[in-house]
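Thread: Newbie trying to understand structure tokens

Hi all, I'm a second-year student working on a class project, and my supervisor (Dr. K.) asked me to get a predicted structure for one chain before our next meeting. I've only ever worked with sequences, so writing a 3D structure as a token string is new to me. If someone could post the tokens and maybe explain what I'm looking at, I'd be very grateful. Here's the chain:
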Amino acid sequence: MSGLWTKIMGYIIFHNTLGDYLITLAIFVVGSLVLRSFKKLLLIKLRRWAERTNKDFLAFLLKSSEQNLLPLIYVGVFYVSLYRLNLSPLWTNIANHVSLSLTVIFSIRFILALFSRGLEYYFQKPETDSSKRYIFIIISKILTFVVWALTVVILLDNLGVQISALVTGLGIGGIAIALASQVLLSDLFNYFTIYIDRPFEIGDYIVIDSFSGTVENIGLKTTRLRSLTGEELIFSNTDLTSSRLRNYKRMFRRRISFSLRVSYQTEATLVKEIPQILAGIITSMPDTELNRSHFSGFGDYGLNFDVVYYVLTRDYIAYMDIQEQINLKIIDEFSKRGINFTYPTQTLYVKNG
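---
Reply by user tm_fold:
Sure, no problem. This is what the structure looks like when written as tokens:
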């Protein structure tokens, strides 16, 4: 009986004994059972525990591993079990190519799943704008398409397929499309520059050259502003990124400088007091910070005084209210002391011949 069993096990089929096939099958079956037990006893339980305890990322990671990494291990077990067999070069190449293809496909799926999860986590933030979510969805789809396209090209190249003509055609077609849509692509790339660098955001008040307004919309090609006089200003994203602009919303305090001139007939004692009078008026105002107050020099029509101070808010109306109160107090204090403002005058002396 043992001799018959030995004879059966030694029966050769395609350069391998029947015993080799059975051992290969046993290795694959035992490896699959071990992986299945690992999945049921540990992986699924861990995922359920993570879901119950609101560990969202861990639950996602375990689920993604179950869907993508575990099949990779099955492929590895299958590939290792084949080493027992003496395969022809054709079947060896087929096994290598199939294993490589499955490994790349499941690896790419796992990486893209992590990327998508990162986007979903970003979208959960309450401050994320809906338009930004839409743009990131588009970016995700484009990136997914590009990654899979590159994966297919690389796999075909590894499988021995001649792809040089395909790559050349894609390159020429890409150049033609880029040239035809140069302006559009420039605005699109500059949109991402605006989004990543964030020189301004929706709601900011900005000034570009002689134009100014509040940002209402940042689109893929153009950015729209609402001017103070009510009309809509439309700029291409390329124009904005190549221009010098001022963002007044990022201004935490406003620097104010003004000058005034008093008459040359003002007494010397009062001239000495004027810088202190101006400084006292500034410091008495709320939301202000004095920088300096000086008698700056002798002008053509009077004595010059310079004042520099900060308004501790970016609100323009608040600044104008403060400046108005300062001007009124200056008039009031100068009137009390009899200090006269000067104005452009000329005195003509005529000598009788």
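A couple of things are worth pointing out once you decode it. Residues 191-250 form a domain with the SH3 type barrels. fold (CATH 2.30.30.60). The chain has three domains: 2-124, 191-250, 254-337. Feel free to ask follow-ups in this thread.
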